[in-house]
Design goal:
single chain; SIR2/SIRT2 'Small Domain'; 2 domains; six-stranded parallel β-sheet; three-stranded antiparallel β-sheet; 10 helices; disordered N terminus
């Protein structure tokens, strides 16, 4: 808990958030792109996000399975340029979540992000709905390949067997992993506190996971309004770093 001497200067909603975290023994965190923007990773839908930048093809098209199969080299040109998270470090939110897990309060992180920063900060129970850039597999033989190998190369990355290497990320037109979804539903449905942060809650089916929450405290932390604001027990429109640095 933050020093009481500085609590009087805080947003009352952050003070309430502090109390809820202190009281809750079974917390689940559900996060989106906004969790990593303070590490320097651009999000997708903000005015400065990837979807509002100019490329030969729209990012939504480049990040589709059809585009990967038909224009693999062009896919990797974009992928290496825009989705290389190896050069970024975790921020205060990542580290505070890892700390809560070590204390036994946080039971799982459910994330839409593919950057691996939660693990880099020390979190162990991370459920990655959209996969991770840290895992890459040969489409022919299944051999694992590191992110360093994929991001450090040029052209289409290939395995020693000749097969094309594909990142273990969920592209448009691909389904989410059923096992990850099941584990996420289980964690959220059993939590007494669900913290939803850095996500617009507009991407399905991931955003629908919030409907499985049956606990006491639903907290939404996001700079913009979400479709679930009216259902939350607490809505905080502050930077995540400011909020999480106070717990």
């Amino acid at each position: 808990m933050a020093d009481n001497r500085i609590m009087t200067n805080l947003n009352p909603k952050i003070i309430k958030f502090q109390a809820l975290v202190e009281e809750s023994p079974n917390i689940v965190f559900f996060g989106g792109a906004g969790v990593s923007t303070e590490s320097g990773i651009p999000d997708f839908r903000s005015k400065d996000g990837l979807y509002n930048q100019k490329y030969d093809y729209p990012p939504e098209e480049i990040l589709s399975r059809t585009f990967f199969d038909r224009k693999t080299e062009e896919f990797y040109r974009f992928y290496r340029d825009k989705l290389n998270s190896l050069r970024f470090e975790p921020n205060v939110t990542h580290y505070k979540l890892a700390e809560l897990e070590r204390k036994g309060k946080l039971r799982a992180v459910v994330t839409q992000n593919i950057d691996g920063l939660h693990q880099k900060a020390g979190s162990k129970k991370v459920l990655e709905l959209h996969g991770s850039v840290l895992r890459n597999y040969c489409m022919k033989c299944g051999q694992f390949h590191s992110a360093e190998e994929v991001f450090g190369g040029k052209g289409i990355p290939r395995c020693r067997c000749g097969g094309i290497i594909k990142p273990d990320v969920v592209l448009y037109e691909e389904s989410l992993d059923n096992r990850v979804l099941e584990l996420s539903v289980a964690a959220i449905s059993q939590a007494d506190m669900l913290i939803v942060a850095g996500t617009s809650l507009t991407v399905y089916p991931a955003s629908g996971l919030i409907n499985y929450f049956r606990g006491e405290s639903l907290v939404l932390i996001n700079r913009d309004a979400t479709p679930y604001d009216g259902k939350a027990d607490l809505v905080i429109k502050e930077n995540l770093g400011k909020v999480f640095s106070c717990i």
